[in-house]
Amino acid sequence: MSAKTKIENPVISLDGVSKWYGDFQALKDINLEINLKEKIVICGPSGSGKSTLIRCLNRLEAHQEGQIHVSGVELHETMKDVDIVRRDIGMVFQNFNLFPHLTVLENCMAGPNWVRGIDKKEAEKRAVAMLEQVKIPEQADKYPDQLSGGQQQRVAIARSLCMEPKVMLFDEPTSALDPEMVSEVLDTMVELATSGMTMICVTHEMGFARQVADRIIFMADGEIVEQNTPDEFFNNPKSDRTKTFLDQILI
Amino acid sequence: MFVDTVIEDKSLHKPAFLLGLSIAVLAFFFAFNLTDTIFGEFLSPVIGNPKESGFFGRLVVSFVLSIIFVLNLLLISFARLKIQILIVWIELFFLFLAFAYSFDLELAYIFIGEPSKLWLMISKGLFTTIYISAVSIAIATAIAIVGAIAKLSNNGFAYAIASFYTSLFRGLPLLLQIYLIYMGLPQLGFMIDAIPSGIAALSLCYGAYMTEIFRAGIQSIPKGQWEASRALGFKFGLILRKIILPQSIPIIVPPTGNQFIAMLKDSSLVSVLGIWELMFMAKKIGAKDFNNLEMLLTAAMIYWALTIILEMIQARIERKYQQKA
Q1: Which of A96, A78, A220, A62 is nearest to A170 (CA)?
Q2: How far apart are the CA of B320 and the nearest CA of chain A, in angstroms?
Q3: How would you classify the pairing of strands A215-220 and A39-43?
C-alpha cells in the first residue's frame, strides 16, 4: 500500500469520531483512514468499542462528534440516502441474522432483487455464483435453521457479497460458532481477502489476523491504542495494554 | 409442552389418597341435601320416602354418589390418555345436558313452525352474526396493522393518535361503544344504520386489542433482523412487509384467533340495536311464546358449535405455521 493512495484514496475515513451511550463514552476521538483493498483487523478486550466502531461505519449506530466519510459521502443523521451507502457496505454479524422465513437462495436474492432492482433470474444467477464461492451451493433450497452455524455464517457472507459491496464489515463473525466450524468461515474470509475485497474485521482470531491483515488495530476503552502491521504488532507491541492483551489471548 | 420422562405413581392408585378423596367427596355431597332431587327418588327403594328419610337418606345418597364419582375417576385413570380425554368430555357434556334438562323445557318448540324456529335462527340469525363478525374482523385486522406500526414509530402524531385510540377503545365497555356510535354519530349529522354502527363498534374495539397483539408480534422479532435488513439497504416499509411481518404471523395468529372467537360472541351485543342476529332473534322469538329458555339455549348451542369450528380452523392454521417455522 503506497503512501500516496493512502492519502488520496481512503474509502472510509474517520475524523475525530466520538460516541456516547448516555454518560458512557464508547468511542473517544477516533481518527482512521481505510484504503481500498485494505484488510483491517480490529481487536481488543470486550467493551473496548470495536463493535461500536464498525457499526458506525454503516450507521447502524450514530456517532455524536466528528465525521465519518464512506466513499466520499459523509454519514450524518439527516442524510436521506443512507441506504445507498449501506448497499455498498456488506456486513456480517456475530449471530448471522439470516432471514429464517426465506430459503438460502432467497436470502441471497433479496438484496439485489428488492433494492438493486435486478430481475429475479439475474439475481438467482448471482446468488448461485456466490453460494458456490462460499462452497455451499447444494444448500440453496434449505432454510437457515436446517444449516450448521458455520454454513449459516457462510450464507450470510454470500448474502452480503450478492450486493457487490465495496467494503465488507465483519463483526466477530466466528464468536458464536462451535470450535470445529470456525475454520470453514475463516477459510471463506481468507479467500475473500485474496480476491482483493476491502475488509474490516472485528475478531479475536489472531491466526487469521496474522495471515491476511494489512493492519491490526488494537482498541481499549473506546480508543485506538495501537495500530501496526501484523509482524510489528505481534513481535514488537508498543503499549503495555497491547502486551497484556496479547499475553492473555495467545496463551 | 415439556413432558417429563420420569413416570410418577398416580396418586389415584394409592389407597390412602382414594380413601381421603372418597371422604372429601362424601362430605361435599352431604353438605347439600340431595334427598329431594332425582337422586333421592332413584334410591327410594333403600331410603323409603325421600322427604322423610332424614339423616339416613342424606348419608345414603351422598355415599352412593361419592362411590360412583370415585369409581368413575379410578376407572378412567386406567385408560389411555386420548380415551381419558374423550370419556371426560362425554361425561361433562351429559352433565351439561342434564343441567339443561332440569329446566323442564319444551324442546319440540324450536322445531315447530313453518319454517321452523331453528331454521329461522340459522338462516337469518347465524348468517347475520357471521356476516357482522367477518366484516368486523377484516376491518379490525387492517386497523391493527396500521395501529401497530403507528405505535412503533417515532412519529409523535402517529404514536399519540394510536395510543389514544387503543386506550379509549380498550377502556370503554363494548356495549357503551355500540351506543355511543349508534346514538352519537347522528348528533354530528352522520345518519348511520344499525348494522354499520354495530360493525364499526366491533371493528374499533377489536382493532384496539389487535393493535396490541400485532405490536407485540412485531416487537418479538429479534433486532438482528432489522439490522441485517438495514445493512443491506432495505427501507422501512420493505423490511416490515418482507422480513418482519411474515415472521410475526406465526406469533400473531393464535391470539388473533382468540380475538375472532371472542368477537363472534361479543357480536351478540349488537342485538341492542335491533339487528336480527342470533341473540336478538333468540330473545324476540322466545319472548313471544314465553319459551325464552328454549331459544336462548338454541342460540347458546349455535354459538358453541361455531366457536368449536373456529377453534379447529385456528388449530389447523397454527399447525401449518409450526411446520414451516
Answers
A1: A96
A2: 13
A3: parallel
Nearest CA in chain A to B250: A101
Interface test with A, best of B225, B232, B324 (most A CBs within 10 A): B232
Residue A136 φ/ψ, nearest 5 degrees:
-140, 45
Give A-chain residues touching B247 at CB under 8 angstroms.
99-101
Considering only CB atoms, which chain B residues are within 8 Å of A99? 225, 228, 243, 247
What's residue B207's pLDDT? Answer: 96
Q: List chain A residues with CB under 8 Å of B232.
A: 86-87, 110-111, 115, 159-160, 163
Q: What is the pLDDT of residues B16-51, one digit of tens each?
A: 998 999 999 999 988 888 877 878 888 888 888 877
Single out the residue of A33, A29, A88 nearest to residue A215, CA to CA: A33
Identify whether B115 is preceded by a cis peptide bond (ω within 30 of 0): yes
Distance CA(B56)–CA(B203), nearest Å, equals: 60
For chain B, the 3-state helix, strand and coil shares in percent, each to the nearest 5, are 80, 0, 20
The secondary structure of A74-98, three-state, reads ECCCCCCCHHHHHHCEEEECCCCCC
Q: What's the pTM value of the predicted model, to 2 decimals?
A: 0.79
Q: List the one residue out of A9, A11, A98, A14 whose CA is nearest residue A61.
A: A14
Q: In angstroms, what CA-CA distances link A174 with A43, A115, B27?
A: 13, 28, 67
Report d(CA A137, CA A135) in Å as an integer: 6
Contact residues, chain B, for A127 at CB < 8 Å: none
Q: Which of B270, B248, B282, B156 shows the shortest CA–CA distance to A101?
A: B248
Q: Rounded CA gap, B199 and B178, in Å?
A: 9
ipTM of this predicted structure: 0.90
